[in-house]
Amino acid sequence: MASEPAFRPGRRRLGALAGLALAAPALSRPARAASAPVTLLVGAAPGSTADAWARGFAPFLERHLPRTAIAVLNRPGERGLAAARAVAGAPPDGRLLAAVAVPQLLARSIELRAEPLLTRLDFMAAVTEEPLVLVGLAGTTDDLDALRGLGPQAVLGTPPHGSAAQLAAVALGQGLPLDLLAFASAPAARQAVLAGNAACALLPLPEAIAALRDGRLSGLALARTRRSDLLPEVPTFAEQGIPLQSAAYRGFAVPAGTGQAALAPLLAALEAVVVDPEFVDQSQARGSVPRFIGQRAWEPMLRRTLAELGERWVRDPWTSRHD
């Protein structure tokens, strides 16, 4: 797992940063003599979490990729596979990127037997880690012992099947015997807890951070090796006797065979964005962790995850639905 970022905002600073999550940053950009367009394809609908993340990232990529304009284009469908197909079939010239979310994209490819599609992509780098947090209704459920006392009839909500949180929640079975229910979206799972219809939900931290900060939800456990500076009062699962460590990642893929001449400036720009102080601020405000995992490390990591998910799918499928 990633080490904690060096940037450690205090509570007062966190409150100020929260407003950054509402809109893409207005960044100062150097004048360009010429503009070479790059299209960033998002495999989700406008207004979705994935769309908001990509549109928040695009101005920073422009800042660190000289003389290049970034256009964000939505290609929803099949939880990211439609966009992946479009990029896989594009010329390998570095002009079309896919914003990808894993393990969701990998899980979806297994569900639809579309693993060969992944071989037609080069996964450049991950740039954002989204920790997973178990949340309950504030004032009602404030620790794991309270959940254990509810019994298996209590609902643990998650985002859709194949998401990092849903896959991790299945592993909670013995340590936290609850009735797992995957919702259509992370916001729907969060709302079920707020409405009292689910005892808790395992969510990516960006989907829970606002409700945690304003006191509507309580943080029960983080699926990390150590506590987060964003939520220092929330213990890890391991601290409470459950060895659960998992996270979601966001990054980028290009058509397989894209040459180093095109990849090198893109990778340099991505690495520069991750340490850009304004991007760090924005990430902290949204509840995510800036983390650069370059191609040499990310591709093997994805191959291992794909193999593990493939074995799991045969042994214990995470969903019977293939829509």
Compact overview of the structure:
It contains twelve helices and ten strands. The protein is of the alpha/beta class. The chain has two domains: 11-25 and 35-129 and 247-315, Bordetella uptake gene, domain 1 (D-Maltodextrin-Binding Protein, domain 2); 131-240, Periplasmic binding protein-like II (D-Maltodextrin-Binding Protein, domain 2), CATH 3.40.190.
Compute the CA-based radius of gyration.
19 Å
Biggest β-sheet strands, sense, barrel: 10 strands, mixed
CATH architecture of the largest domain: 3-Layer(aba) Sandwich
Total domains: 2
Mean pLDDT across residues: 88
- Helix/strand structural class: alpha/beta
The separation of the N and C termini measures 32 Å
What is the approximate shape? globular
How many helices? The count is: 12
Unreliable segments of 5+ consecutive residues = 1-24, 29-34
Please write the string of helix (H) and strand (E) elements.
HEHEHEHHEHEHEHEHEEHHEH
* Proportion of helical residues: 25-40%
Q: Could you tell me the strand content as a percent range?
A: 15-25%
CATH class placement of the largest domain: Alpha Beta
What's the count of strands?
A: 10
